[in-house]
Amino acid sequence: MSALALPPLALLAAASWFGRWVRPGADDWCFLPRVRDDGISGLVGKFYFDDNGRVANALLVGAYAKFQVAGHQWYPLISGVLVLAVLWAVAVLALRRAALRTPRGTALLLAAMTTALFLFVTPNTYKTFYWPAASVSHTLPPVLACAALIPLLLARTRRGRVVAITLAVLMAAFLATLSEETAIVVVMVLLAALLVSGRVVPAAERGFVRLWCVGGIAGTAAGALVLITSPGSTTRRERFGAETTSLLAPDSLAASLRAFAEITVTVVTTWQYAGAVAVGVLLGLLCRRADGTTPRPPAHWPLLTAAGVLTLLVSGYLCTVIAYPVFQDRVSDPSANRLWNDYLLLYVI
For residue 177, which of 45, 46, 50, 56 is within the disulfide window of CB 3.0 to 4.6 Å? Predict the structure, then answer.
């Protein structure tokens, strides 16, 4: 199985190597002088008071902008390794928690294929992988959301559960001031998990899972409050006419629905995503329970399937709704594909 992971890993390595030719562009020329002259704290202040209120976004932008051009060139390698590591850890722990035995290297294959599909199948790889400003806002946030699953899957004791819930609250608050779109996806996923938990989560774990979900939602709400009440967010909404009334206007909602339909058609007709199906089928064929028997689909698989599809569709549509006032009809263009990444990882998984 490890051998099957080599092609996507080689693709990731080659793409990371090409990062040495990345140069700053677009918004980067605003960030670099600010960080050079005022430091990361200066950029945080600019984001909060003037630009958009995304303080966590400013922290991550400042982290690579601090190294100027070199930061841009190293960013693809570092972010690619981070994505792979997070997905690998989640895959290992999920298989272990499900008490499934798989051939050596299966988790690595799952993580490598998911990473390759998420980063390189989109219409514009540059904005997904190579452009740090876009990656920080739309590529890394859903991966960081997945990272919150690691303490959840590790939690065995009371102390471990407290740590998992605490980290869920903190990560959710961080994500809310990093990417509004990912925050929406997080809330939708957690709400779906809450709704189906009574049917699919064992009674012994149900209370903990529900508290973890509620903690994530509460953390997102707290972070969103910081974002929405910031002077920078107010300025941005006024600049693009993205007040609540305009977001909920019938014309805007209808246009967002048309745009999301176009995005959906583009994504589902991209044949490369069949790689995720192939790896999933391979996992189903090779995994075994501890007693050596072949696992059967969960009893509530229709409910899980319906909840997953509905969550993906609602998340994607709401993300399109809040992006539409800024990008208008361009929100569904391949050139704006970075805006899809917040929910695209959910689709690939």
Answer: 56
